[in-house]
Structure prediction request, 714 residues.
Amino acid sequence: MYLRSNMSKKKRNEKLRRSLSHIIRKVFTENPESTLNHRQVCSLIDVKEKALRKLVYTILEDLKREKFISSMSHGTYKLSGSTNYVTGTLDMTQRGAGYVVVDGDDSDIFIPPSQTNQGLDGDQVKVQITKHGKSRKEGRIVEIIERERTQFVGTIKLSKDYGFLVPDNSRVGTDIFIPKEKLKKAKDGEKALVRITKWPKSADNPYGEVIELLGKNSSNDNEMISILVNQGLDFRFENDVLSEAETVTIDLDPKEVAKRRDFRDITTFTIDPQDAKDFDDALSFQRLENGHIEVGIHIADVSHYVRPGSAMDTEALKRSNSVYLVDRVVPMLPEQLSNLACSLRPHEDKFSFSAVVEMDENGKVYNQWFGKTVIHSDRRFTYEEAQEIIEGADGDMKEEILLLDKIAKILRKKRLKAGAMNIESEEVRFRLDEEGYPESIMIKRSKDANKLIEEFMLLANRSVATFISKRGKGEAKIPFVYRCHDKPDTAKIEMFNMFINKFGYEINTDNPNAISKNINALLNDIRYKNEYSLIQSMAIRSMAKASYETKNIGHYGLAFDFYTHFTSPIRRYADLIVHRILQETLTSKKHQYNNELDDICKRISRMERKAVEAERESTKFFQTLFVSDKIGQEFDGVVSGVAEFGMFVKMDENQCEGMIPLQDLPGDRYYFDADQYMIIGSKTEKTFNFGDKVRVRIYEVSTKRRRIDLELVE
Prediction:
């Protein structure tokens, strides 16, 4: 009895302490600029009893140790400015809560549903931290710095005098109220594109207007538009951008031609995918009198046409990159430039910006030159055509292609020996019919022709970055955009080791600089085993994400000390900036970019991630569309993932991934063992693990949710 009474008293005291702590936190957060002493705090929260006043003092000292408040002079306290306000990106959940991701901080800040303060998914926000917990911080949004998106695709729901848009993206967290006069005769249940016009402080929902009714579009068109809009990606150009682009002619100005180094009489060609329309790069080849080879890596001179501050430049920065969905390309620049004026099309004179390298047949570089050029592509090869020549077929420019392939293989071998990651890219590709419906799915793997182009583009990118970085002694450092890739996080590598242990493999992680070599050795050993693709995928996930930075840290994955993006200015804004900086370095020595480069790097890195997400979701949509008429059919597959809620299986025939809920696994009650990272039967002790071969049946498909539900065939 005494014990129970004592415990109850202890619980009451703890509850009182928590309540007082919450009230005191609120006092400081509501008075962020005030300096308060113990007596003033007690007065504000109306505490008079001696015991409670003593408890208030104890709580103040606890909050000081947590760095929620700072101790000022004469026994006063103030909200800690350094930890109280931060800015970051809001990541909303379907439950209405959010997490704010802050650059340079590994821990997110939890935002309760009541504290999101009209924030929407992806917004840049200012957060006031209200609680420093042991496992996470908690806060409330005090300011929307920048809306990530104001346009949304969804379904119209009509009432008598108004309507609402229910966004396709459930993470938006709110429906959009549309006055009757702003509905544009939208029908109930119709798809529409809606723009938020205002969000009064007193309103629960933002106000909007219908921009476009999408009812006449095909379902595929609407899905792609929805994917783009939900990522905050524009799918159309404004009229001022198109008008400016139309003034660009494909005819070359003779005066400008005369200023450039002329490569039009030198053998030049492109190698690109069969369906490519924007040709960023070309290679030229000639033998020199000293026996060396001169290879020109010629890049479309977008900077000649897109001037800083122009409508096209502003739009290109806004988009930051082209987006490649399954059935379409959403270009960074209007087609007048991306497919016509800038594109290095065959049998046309074109302006280019070039890295010209003198080397021998073993890939040793003796001289390099950078500058503006004019070229004429003699031949356009597809990767398949070039690959046939590499594999022994006769064809145009056979000598040039075979020698460049030999050099590329030597350059690649050197990179791998230096510690570069040896990743064999696998890309899911669809063959679409005339109506845009997927007829078949294939895996496109990188072959020697792809690697030939890749190695010479890597050479140009690295050479430009090294040239800019290693200026002469006494010269000022040039503001620049580097493509950086950090060393892998130790914890992630240990998790990767735990993962491959399930297959009986292990890598040595003692030396961080040797991790890539150890992973390469593992991948080489298991290249023809069933688990190869899964382990390579997990190896990629365990690596840091590459990003654009103004402070160079090198590129771990490529084993380069200096690296940038120079070779794709038609589809990447980073490359356009690098062209401008390189030209300024070669000529005027005056650089227009300085402090704003940091913000530009953050933006283009963020937009790159959005493009990747859009492309990934596009692939998932077409995969579900492909199997939507195959419900009830059985397929062989391999376990590609296990989790507390179920098991993922990738089907061999179509490369589509589906899920089997844990409770639907037949014959036993199964549970997920986090330590062994496998699914185990409670009675039979039957296990399911990564790489296990299984047979499954498709029983439900949702293109809207991008989900394939499977059941196990025993």
